[in-house]
Amino acid sequence: PVSLGDVRSVLDLGAGPGTATWAAVDACPSLVTATQIDRSRALLDVAARLGAATLTARGITLTQRASDVTSGHDWPAADLVVSAYTLAELAPGARATLVAAAWRAASQALVLVEPGTPVGFQHILDARTELIGAGASIIAPCPHETTCPMRTDARREDWCHFAVRVPRTRRHRQLKGGSLGYEDEKYAYLVATMRPAAAERPPRVLRHPQIEKGRIQLALCAPGGAERVVVTRRDEAWPAARKVGWGDAWRTAPEVDRS
User: Fold this and answer.
1) In principle, which of 147, 157, 195, 210 could form an S-S bond with 1, CB 3.0–4.6 Å?
2) Bridge partners, residue 37, by sequence
3) Residue 55 region, left (φ>0) first, then alpha (ψ -120 to 50), else beta?
4) Per the omega criterion (within 30 degrees of 0), is the bond before 141 cis?
């Protein structure tokens, strides 16, 4: 329902040093304008310095506004609206205000990203409910707009989140007191669109696949809810199961054991 090649403008709410903007620049080859909103003028200045060469080379016009994202302004419309690691800093009412304003500004898609903690997931879950109520289609990570199966875990021993491996520089290791050259950043996210999602969306792998001798077990969020799929060496899906990872869409629909 959304092609990154069609995205010509991005609005980054709570931009900080511009990390979400630069991710959009990398992912959207047709981008021509970027707008960053943050209450800190100092962070916006850092964002401008960090991205100056890249934006100039790509011919992208950057606009910045030092403003509180909780003000409830009608932000300038953009094909893609992004708010990353911002909801956790806000009070409940302010979070709802930001989500509503961000959705009004999105002409194609809204992307929300939060820390991959139970609290971060709850913020994403609350935003999901609000957006579905406003008529949004959820295209990732959820394959449906029905009740989130993770909501039923009242003890919060399990929650929907994913991970990406981030390389550490020498200075990064020193500042964090780490010895490894990488760290696994955990995050929860949501992508909502104006257009209707595809009628059939593939399930999402919710955890690292459990690999045993001759079998691989996948925990999935499917259109019908949470399910577990066991793929064995005898199944046609075996090669795909060996390659799929946590957070990937499970696009194979083989005849395998389900529970």
Assistant:
1) 195
2) 13, 65
3) alpha
4) yes
Least confident of 74-88, 92-106, 142-156: 142-156
Residue 185: CA count within 13 A, CB half-sphere: 13
Per-residue pLDDT of 61-73, as tens digits, reads: 999 999 988 776 7
Q: Is 50 exceeded by the pLDDT of residue 254?
A: no
32-69: per-residue pLDDT in tens?
999 999 999 999 999 999 888 889 899 999 999 999 88
Each as own residue / partner, the long-range contacts of residues 71-77 (CB below 8 Å, 24 or more positions apart, any chain) are: 72/97, 72/101, 73/101, 74/101, 74/104, 74/105, 75/11, 75/13, 75/35, 75/37, 75/101, 75/102, 75/104, 75/105, 76/11, 76/35, 76/105, 77/9, 77/11, 77/105, 77/106, 77/107
Q: Give the 3-state secondary structure of residue 50.
A: helix
Pick the closest to residue 257 from 241, 108, 246 (CA basis): 241
Give the single-character DSSP code of 229: E
pLDDT of residue 237: 92
The answer to whether the CB of 117 falls within 8 A of the CB of 87 is no
- Count other C-beta atoms under 10 Å from residue 37's C-beta: 24
Could you tell me whether strands 215-222 and 210-212 are parallel, antiparallel, or unpaired per DSSP bridges? antiparallel
